[in-house]
Amino acid sequence: MSKVLYIKANAKEEGESRTFKISDSFIEEYKRLNPDDEIITLDLYKEGVAALPFGQLNELHVPAPGTGKDHPILKYAYQFLEADKYVIAEPLWNLGIPAILKAYIDYITVTGITFKYTATGAVGLCTGKKAINITARGGIYNTEPFASFEMGDRYLRTIFAFLGITDFTTISADGLDIIGNDINAIVEKAIMEAKEKANSF
Question: Most buried of 48, 74, 119, 127, CB within 10 angstroms?
Answer without folding.
Answer: 74
